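Researcher: We are triaging several targets before committing to wet-lab work. For this one, the compound of interest is flavin mononucleotide. I'm pasting the protein sequence and the ligand SMILES. What I need is the predicted three-dimensional arrangement of the protein with the ligand bound, expressed as structure tokens, so it can go straight into our comparison scripts without reformatting.
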Amino acid sequence: MARVSEIIFPRMTGLVITCDSQGKPNIAAFSFLMPISFEPKYVAFAVSPRRKTYENLREVEEFVLAIPPSEMIEKVWACGTKSGRETDKFVLLGLETVRAKTVKPPLLRSMPVQLECRMELFKEFGDHWLVVGRVLKEHVEKLDFQPVLHYSKNVFTTVSGRMVL
Ligand SMILES: Cc1cc2nc3c(=O)[nH]c(=O)nc-3n(C[C@H](O)[C@H](O)[C@H](O)COP(=O)(O)O)c2cc1C
């Protein structure tokens, strides 16, 4: 049987920044990710309970969703293959942070799009937990960038063109 990630693709890859109750931040890659409301803006993603990100969200119900450009693919891969339990991914990858306006987890210094979110729903579905976050503050530096589109495991795709009907 095909994995769900091999049936529903490509998926936008985001970097989710969380922090624990002491304020120590963590960053991880997520492609079970989607927008769910225009106004107010809401976003959703699914997190396995095995992730440090899951533990952090239990402690601090806030996150920053950053949308990385395709040039960052190797850093995205590291964020998606190493756990914050053993590795400080900010130090490892040279990711600089700046204080967010409305939430405890920090922003990355320079990213095309970052959304400060407050978690409003956290619910188990099968082997993942659905996280729904309300966007409290948005930071949009640019919109003309190539996102990282995930297929499954270590396979990614790119946007080859835009269709306007
Ligand atoms: C491109 C990509 C997408 C991923 N998407 C998800 C996802 O949607 N949900 C999830 O739980 N893990 C996902 N992962 C796996 C986590 O990012 C990975 O387990 C990471 O090491 C978790 O870090 P943490 O333990 O610091 O939270 C993805 C990994 C990659 C590389």
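Researcher: Any quick observations?
Model: The chain has one domain: 4-157.
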